[in-house]
Specification:
Keywords: Membrane, Transmembrane, Transmembrane helix. The chain is α+β, with helices and mostly antiparallel strands and 207 residues long. It contains 4 helices and 9 strands. The protein starts with a strand and ends with a strand. The structure holds zinc ion (ZN).
Length: 207
């Protein structure tokens, strides 16, 4: 099954100029035809590729490429080619990718705004994703005392960042009883200094 490749579509030319055929001498039987290709995945247009045109005689079926046309015809051919526009749908994939990029940028921006807010006004049960000594774990805010945050640490750690999703879902209540304390300044250093002795904060989650 072909799941990607290129597809050619005939472009609608609004101005259909017609010419006399130099091959069979029929009157007004020669017209231009333009083909635009686009790259597709599962037949969904992703981005435009080539655009080509020909002239064709409806009587003798002679086909001419631009380099075989008379100078006058070639001039008209290029004018007609400029007017034969691709439909906007050929750009669907590009628009979609652009939209996706905008959404990702927005989400990343929104997360950073949220995290600034979570740091400024911490709440009990805020979850901090932490990297320390090449392992990842979770700290959960247990108590907020003025400028000091008291955390319970997750009883497990993982070698991979992606492993944190297991800690968040399967072992979401497995926190040690012991607590650790950080001042807000220490927390800030954990956010910006990747070599902080307290570990590094990857992100902050609030439900
Ligand atoms: Zn002809």
């Amino acid at each position: 099954m072909i799941i990607f490749g290129t597809i050619a579509k005939i472009l609608n030319s609004k101005e259909m100029l017609s010419y006399d055929c130099e091959n069979c001498n029929s009157k007004g039987t020669v017209t231009f035809l333009f083909l635009a290709r686009y790259f597709h995945i599962f037949w969904i247009p992703i981005f435009p590729t080539s655009k080509k045109g020909i002239s064709q005689c409806s009587h003798c079926k002679q086909v001419l490429y631009a380099n075989e046309m008379s100078p006058k015809m070639k001039q008209d051919y290029f004018m007609a080619s400029a007017k034969a526009k691709r439909p906007i749908t050929h750009y669907f994939g590009l628009f979609f990718i652009g939209l996706l990029c905008c959404m990702i940028i927005f989400i990343v921006y929104q997360n950073s705004v949220n995290e600034t807010e979570y740091l400024a006004n911490p709440k009990v049960d805020d979850l901090y994703k932490i990297e320390k000594n090449d392992t990842y774990t979770l700290y959960k805010v247990y108590e907020v005392k003025g400028d000091t945050l008291i955390f319970k640490t997750h009883s497990m750690s993982t070698k991979k960042y992606s492993g944190l999703s297991d800690l968040l879902k399967k072992y979401k209540n497995d926190y040690a009883d012991a607590t650790i304390k950080f001042t807000k300044d220490q927390i800030k250093s954990m956010q910006h200094d990747t070599n902080s002795e307290f570990g590094k904060i990857y992100s902050i989650k609030r439900d």
